[in-house]
Each structure stands twice: as structure tokens, then as C-alpha cells.
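C-alpha cells please, single chain.
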Amino acid sequence: MIDAQQDCEYPPENIELSRKSKQDSLRKEQLAFKRWMEYRDELSLRLPEKIRKDFNNSTNNVLRLKLIQLKNQYQNIGIYGGDIMRCWLPEDCSDEDLSAYPSFDRVWSVYLQHHDDSEWKDWKRILK
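Here you go.
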């Protein structure tokens, strides 16, 4: 996802929209998330056993959702259209789908070649 970033054309003078700036922001977010997960791991060890199980399950749910967001390349956050919805990985996906989904960019590139395909309901169409 970091490598997939591109400069935005409009407005050209906006340095916050440069490829490097977006990559730096993603790296900062990555580090902050890693630190948060490390803190949760440390905290888990200090919790009573009956609470630890639920706490760890919550951590796993956060990790799963984060992986979905990363595979979707954050395309499922904010305002979006039906075309994007056909290409992203839904939050309630199976573990098998989570493993099989390549990336939003990959699915999107195939979708753009076949967007008039009436059978295209979701990202799994690229598997056919």
C-alpha cells in the first residue's frame, strides 16, 4: 500500500498530497498501530485470566479489521460509490475470503476492464 501511493494532481502545490507525504503518513500510522498492539500485549499479561480471554479476543478483532482496511487500501472509509463497493472486501468476510483477497488496487484494475459486466456483484468476480 505504501508503494502504491501516487502524487495527487490537484492542487499541484499541495505538498500534503505528494506521494512522499502520503507514504510518510502511512509509516507513522503503521508505527502507532504497532505500538498500540504491543501495549495491548503487555497489558493482557497483567489482566486476570477470565478477563484476558475477552481482551485478547477484542485485540484479535481489531487486528482482523485492520487487515481488512489495509487490503481495501482504506477505500471503504468515507464517501464512496457503488463501483467501489463492488470491489472492496466487506468487514463481515470469511477468513477464507480475507486470505484470498489480493488488494483493492488489483481488484479495481480488473473491474475497470469489465465494469459493464452485469455479473460483477463483488470482488470474487476476478476469481472466475
